Recover the amino acids of this structure.
């Protein structure tokens, strides 16, 4: 993109955000009418930062609806929603930055266990390959399946309550789908270094969320194709993605070590060229204080439809 259209884009986004903040503040002020002002200056700054974060959700929603309006279009990283925003001084004294992440460009850990409670073998093999591509031990796949599946029967290489209860202090595996990838840190031996390496490539979404090949990370594409071809040519992947969805499903099919496996892979992992689940990461700073926010967003179609906030974490 040229400099002119980039700066026009930023100016437009800034205008949208300022509008959203103005509306949020107007609402907050009207809600406070008649109440005594009792906040400390720090509390007021934090409240303002929180309102700015809420406003970013409204802006993110409008960008996502724009990208998803045409039900036949692909969802990819060359669209406006994918551009990191800021840091920009959004109102005097407040810097804001935000980015949206397509969570379906990651491997969904909850896809490891099928609706009938049995391990999804294709998903397991994909995770094992992903772990190997990241130079992690493939055995973690069995440990993660046992953590998620409802039964107490350990897989070969896995661990269930019989093992966790012997630890000090003892505890039980979740035995249900997980809502945050950070739950992996509760798995015996899965340390922070391993988590940091794996985290950019995984998500914890509803089992049937699907995987968008247009935004999948290089190591994850390699895990799908069974060949180390995407992450070893990261620059080429990046360049191809500047023009739109890449690889298309057809291209991925032809990249498989065995293309006849494509249909099984597609159905086991819900391969597609669109997404519904997004993570919005925001950071607002004012002076020496900062405020982070994370929102899990889901697009509900058809067409532009609605963006629903499924959960929101905020922290000073
Ligand atoms: Ca289990």
């Amino acid at each position: 993109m040229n400099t002119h259209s980039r700066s026009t884009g930023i100016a437009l986004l800034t205008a949208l955000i300022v509008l959203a903040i103005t509306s949020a503040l107007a609402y907050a002020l009207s809600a406070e009418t008649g109440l005594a002002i009792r906040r400390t200056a720090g509390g007021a700054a934090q409240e303002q930062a929180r309102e700015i974060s809420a406003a970013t959700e409204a802006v993110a929603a409008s960008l996502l609806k724009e990208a998803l309006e045409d039900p036949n279009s692909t969802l990819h990283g060359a669209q406006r929603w994918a551009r990191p925003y800021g840091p920009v001084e959004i109102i005097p004294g407040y810097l804001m930055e935000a980015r949206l992440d397509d969570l379906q460009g990651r491997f969904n850990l909850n896809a490891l266990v099928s609706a009938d409670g049995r391990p999804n073998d294709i998903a397991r093999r994909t995770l094992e390959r992903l772990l190997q591509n990241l130079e992690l031990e493939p055995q973690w796949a069995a440990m993660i399946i046992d953590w998620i599946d409802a039964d107490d029967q350990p897989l070969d290489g896995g661990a269930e309550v019989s093992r966790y209860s012997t630890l000090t202090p003892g505890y039980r595996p979740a035995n249900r789908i997980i809502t945050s990838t950070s739950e992996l840190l509760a798995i015996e031996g899965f340390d922070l270094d391993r988590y940091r390496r794996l985290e950019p490539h995984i998500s914890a979404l509803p089992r049937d969320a699907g995987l968008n090949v247009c935004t999948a990370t290089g190591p994850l594409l390699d895990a799908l194709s069974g060949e180390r071809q995407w992450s070893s040519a990261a620059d080429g992947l990046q360049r191809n993605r500047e023009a739109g969805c890449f690889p298309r499903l057809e291209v991925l099919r032809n990249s498989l070590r065995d293309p006849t496996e494509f249909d099984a892979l597609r159905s086991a992992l819900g391969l597609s060229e669109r997404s519904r689940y997004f993570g919005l990461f925001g950071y607002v700073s004012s002076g020496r204080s900062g405020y982070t926010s994370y929102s899990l967003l889901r697009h509900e179609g058809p067409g532009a439809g609605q963006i629903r906030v499924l959960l929101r974490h905020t922290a000073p």
Summary: The pocket of calcium ion is lined by residues 146, 149, 151-152, 160, 173, 175 (CB under 6 Å). Residues 153 and 160 are 7 Å apart (CA to CA).
